[in-house]
TrEMBL record, chains A, B:
GO molecular function, one term: nicotinate phosphoribosyltransferase activity
EC number: 6.3.4.21
CDD domains: NAPRTase_A
Purpose of the protein: Catalyzes the first step in the biosynthesis of NAD from nicotinic acid, the ATP-dependent synthesis of beta-nicotinate D-ribonucleotide from nicotinate and 5-phospho-D-ribose 1-phosphate.
Protein name as annotated: Nicotinate phosphoribosyltransferase
Pathway, per record: Cofactor biosynthesis; NAD(+) biosynthesis; nicotinate D-ribonucleotide from nicotinate: step 1/1
Catalytic activity: 5-phospho-alpha-D-ribose 1-diphosphate + nicotinate + ATP + H2O = nicotinate beta-D-ribonucleotide + ADP + phosphate + diphosphate
Organism in which the protein naturally occurs: Leucobacter soli
Gene name as annotated: pncB1
Post-translational modification, as annotated: Transiently phosphorylated on a His residue during the reaction cycle. Phosphorylation strongly increases the affinity for substrates and increases the rate of nicotinate D-ribonucleotide production. Dephosphorylation regenerates the low-affinity form of the enzyme, leading to product release.
């Protein structure tokens, strides 16, 4: 395990720098944008997640002796490039959508202004983080809405790479989940952790009753007992018999949930355990969560679907050069011309427009001198707000975007941003973005 | 970044241990199996990947002061459990399918025999690794077959979490890919790295010609020039004009590939560049690779689809208690009874059966005393071989399964295992497993 993030990148970033250094073009001021051409999965909106992680990874983006030795010994770049990399420290500016914000096709989640070499080097790392974290957060946001305010726990660590699991817990929490089963996410990001018990715990003991007794003895009657290892009805009866009517919750992990949940609720009530909650965890996604809206479920545990973006495991983000200075120091807007992969060149600032009721109605990308430039404050007709914020200024990470503080701010920002969207945004069907993106 | 892997797990593993310690059941000898109930995505076979990574992660599965402090301060487990965790070091036995081997529904990829507490603790970490790595390797193996021997490069780092990217490069390499764009995978696992250039490199320069000149000057004529930033035909002409007919390769990243590739090949030949290769990279998966079988493509770069398991981002692995000693020290086979999640209890050894032509015809799980036991060598009628190998014995990792050596062995093992499968295994359509799994 290496703490440097510098090699979490594609080889071609470094060979491009090598070639540009030799050609004298590496130091041209350049603007890169990270954006999605479309919302993968035909989502109605996307959720920005990964910003804080990206800024933390940027701090550790340094080529130490180990990294440089690998590059030299394998002749990946020339000695001149190795020397340049040894001194690498991002010194440019980064603007972006703040974490937790919603986004749409073309939204520049990150705008990097620096030399070409400094900016191109961050392409793969930035995309890895945002493609994964945004996919998880976007799925999680839909699930949060589908749950109608009932708490959701992220329990998918086992269904994604062991480090992605920690990122997924963070992204889901920002997008509305209440807790995670992942301990590292608890330690690293201060996210509340939760857990019940596995079927193996029941099976280990000589009877379900002995297993429940062991769990209640250790964790108290407020614990959650897993009641479906053998027969659910008997499991519920045993659970209340062992823990009493003050049992915290029962968990159901199999069966036709709407039917099973209704029966378990009726049985708990009949046994006098009106306060005992029901949590369900059987391969849920936003659609099955929504289908349980009228069931007496108290909380949901979601695994596979949230950590794999519910059918969209990567958000389709790209990182593109949109402007640079030419040989004469003049700014040039650029874009690839291929018909199927067109993008809009040029520096942009972004404004979100609202109607008179405060509902978002459009995302406007203003082509011009970019964020913080002259277009700021320009009258676009009606209420609007600037979306982009400075994330890094002259190499210095701006406060409030990283660590536990950044996560709390992102979670609250997400809640507000979603509340401003038009009702169609909450549709779980595939369709067009909830608001259009215009370019001016 | 913490080098301990001990918190890459779900909270409930630790609370179960806490309860089992208090109940006196934590030390019961137990057997856990990691297996897939079915082949996700209706694949014809699965590919084992992640074994070496799991064994390496197991070596670092230690609760240090930082981990223990987090557990204590957050009252996740009792002081007695904290003390037990402080001394944790896996001391049991692990058998498994060796990495690179193919597997089928029910195949015990990993069999852990230890105390309940020692074994249950590894559930989440093992599943995270195998669910992701096997999904990637299984997709990669299909792509390798579809490419008919032409080299495939893994270029999907940007489409999965930044650490999963390194795992994906490793899994794809084992399953038949030739190289990766990921530098950390090159450093950590010795996998050959490759790279071309991005559109941003062309756009940075004042013309495509200047960009090509810069790249050829730095990287030599053997490099690969990206020719589709503007007009592909003009791009190819410029590339040969700049590099000469000795140009290594051109890369095409957009357009209707069968048509474009044929035109580019004809143009290269017309320009005298018969030896210049063509590499394509436009959102490929096993189906588009197969569709290019008769096109003059020389190599493929695959991104999103391989690192996201081509529609199956998690392999559907579970980790289940299948046997344990009871209060009297007698072995008991156990299995959850829920109809939709049934599994087969008991210790197993596994034999692969062949027909007279050496083609695999069945996977047989022998219920009994487990791997290395008396059923070894039993006559099953016709040719067969043992599949399980010892991975960890009394806590000691067996040699040959980790590091660069383990990867090389796994890659060769995969090649041999796939070659033994019946022809239906190579079908890209959804369907039944290529061979059945029997239990005796």
């Amino acid at each position: 395990m290496h703490t440097s993030t510098a090699l979490l990148t594609d080889r071609y970033e470094l060979t491009m720098i090598d070639a540009a250094l030799q050609a004298g073009t590496a130091h041209r001021r350049s603007v890169f944008e990270l954006f999605a051409r479309r919302l993968s999965g035909a989502r109605r909106y996307g959720v920005v997640a990964g910003t804080g992680r990206f800024l933390e990874a940027l701090e550790r983006f340094r080529f130490g002796d180990d990294e440089l030795r690998f590059l030299s010994e394998n002749r990946i770049v020339s000695d001149a490039a190795v020397d340049w990399l040894a001194d690498y420290r991002f010194s440019g500016d980064i603007w972006g959508y703040p974490e937790g914000e919603v986004f749409f096709p073309g939204s520049p989640l990150v705008t990097v202004e620096s030399s070409f070499a400094e900016g191109v080097l961050l392409e793969t790392l930035a995309l890895s983080i945002f493609n994964y974290d945004c996919a998880v957060a976007t799925a999680a946001s839909r699930m949060s809405h589908a749950a109608h305010g009932k708490p959701l726990a992220e329990m998918g660590s086992r269904r994604t790479g062991e480090h992605s699991a920690v990122s997924a817990a963070r992204a889901a929490y920002i997008a509305g989940f209440s807790s995670t089963s992942n301990l590292e996410a608890g330690r690293r990001y201060g996210i509340p952790t939760m857990g019940t018990a596995a079927h193996s715990f029941t099976l280990l003991h000589d009877s379900e009753r002995e297993a429940f007794e062991a769990q209640v003895a250790a964790l108290g009657t407020g614990t959650t007992l897993l009641v479906d290892t053998f027969d659910i009805e008997q499991g519920v009866r045993t659970a209340i018999d062992v823990a009493g009517t003050g049992l915290g919750a029962v968990r159901i992990d199999s069966g036709d949930l709407p039917v099973v949940v209704a029966r378990v609720r009726a049985l708990l009530d009949e046994l006098g355990a009106q306060e005992t909650r029901i949590t369900v965890t059987n391969d849920l996604d936003e659609h099955t969560v929504a289908a349980l809206a009228s069931s007496p479920v108290d909380s949901f545990g979601v695994g596979t679907s949230v950590v794999t973006g519910s059918g969209t495991p990567a958000m389709g983000m790209v990182y593109k050069l949109v402007a640079h200075e030419d040989a004469d120091g003049e700014w040039v807007s650029v874009a690839k011309k291929s018909a199927d992969k067109a993008s809009v060149g040029g520096r942009k600032s972004v404004r979100r427009l609202y109607n008179d009721q405060g509902v978002a109605r459009a995302e406007v990308c203003l082509l011009g001198d970019g964020p913080g430039g002259e277009s700021e404050g320009e009258d676009l007709g009606g209420r609007s707000r600037e979306v982009l914020v400075p994330l890094v200024s002259a190499g210095e990470t701006q406060s409030g975007h990283v660590g536990v503080e950044g996560i709390a701010a992102a979670k609250e920002r997400h809640r507000r941003a979603v509340a401003e969207l038009p009702p169609i945004a909450m549709s779980l069907t595939r369709g067009d973005p909830a608001i259009p993106t215009h370019y001016r």
